[in-house]
Amino acid sequence: MYAYRDSTFVYEGQQQWRAEPDRPGWQLWLRFVLTVLVLPVWWLLLLVIALAALVVAMFAEILTVIPGFERGAERAMDAVIGKISLWPRWAVTWPELNHEGDTAFHAARVDAYLDKWTKRAARPKAPKKPAPPTECEVPWRTYRGVGGSYVVEAAARRGWELRPSDPAEEIRLWWSAASAAGATGPGVAGPGVAGPGAGGPGAPGPGAFGPATGYPPAGTA
User: Fold this and answer.
1) pLDDT tops 60 at residue 121
2) Tag placement on the chain: N or C end, fewer CB within 10 Å?
3) Which stretches does DSSP call E strand in 57-195?
4) Residues 185, 178 contacting (CB under 8 angstroms)
5) Which DSSP state fits 84?
6) 161-204 pLDDT, tens per residue?
7) How big, in percent rounded to 5, are the helix, strand and coil portions of the chain?
């Protein structure tokens, strides 16, 4: 894995960037049945939590006169939201059940996800409307069948840059054109990525992201 240190990505291993091993059929079916039975209940629970949070926020407005309360409440809310996922890691959908081990399927899945975000990011900024997104997070379940290295390669072809990421959780990307337009954030240069077979199948080779990570060199920021 690559850790972000001193404005460079430091090579620490390859396993996290590779595709996940195929799961046995019985495990997939068990996960699928649990998904069908439990996931609707999970979504209902999330809806109840969201409504409860809305009610609490309405009453908490009175307490904003207390110094530091609003900032603390925002941090607590962000921490809670960051732990919640609509799709738990154990969940298995019908397409995933039928395409376990199908590299082409999972690659197409990543491509479709990146194409959707690329279309949004490349959209011209319209007056009086929100600015196009400059960041994108690719969830782990989207690329588990091809590995994080494929995400980085496919993203680089579309004009995205790798940001400090943990491929065991998600891969964070930055739209490089935003930097070219003078926006704050990483620079224009995108990471170079070694192809499959360099440093192991489907894994970035040592120095694949090097110092050309889209961040300014140390001491120049």
Assistant:
1) yes
2) C
3) 135-139, 160-162, 170-175
4) yes
5) -
6) 998 888 888 899 999 887 665 444 443 333 333 333 333 334 44
7) 45, 10, 45
Counting every residue, how long is the chain?
Answer: 221
For 64-76, how does the pLDDT look when each residue is reduced to its tens digit (9 = 90+)?
Answer: 656 666 666 666 6
- Among 48-57, 156-165, 196-205, 212-221, the range with the most confident prediction by mean pLDDT is 156-165
Measured CA to CA, the distance from residue 155 to residue 209 in angstroms comes to 13
Written as six digits, the tokens of 44 are 């209902």
Q: What is the DSSP letter of 4?
A: E
What amino acid is encoded at 73 in this protein? A
Q: Which of 201, 174, 204, 177 is nearest to 192 (CA)?
A: 204
* Cβ pair 73, 30 in contact under 8 A: no
Backbone angles phi, psi at 196, to 5 degrees: -55, 135
Q: What CA–CA distance (Å, rounded) separates 184 from 68?
A: 28
Residue 66's contacts (CB-CB under 8 Å, 6 or more residues apart) are none
Q: What is the DSSP string of 56-82?
A: HHHHHGGGGGSTTHHHHHHHHHHHHHH
Identify whether the C-beta of residue 19 lies closer than 8 Å to the C-beta of residue 147: yes
d(CA 163, CA 216): 13
Q: Which of 156, 192, 187 is nearest to 171 (CA)?
A: 156
CB neighbours of 144 closer than 8 A, spacing ≥ 6?
A: 19, 20, 106
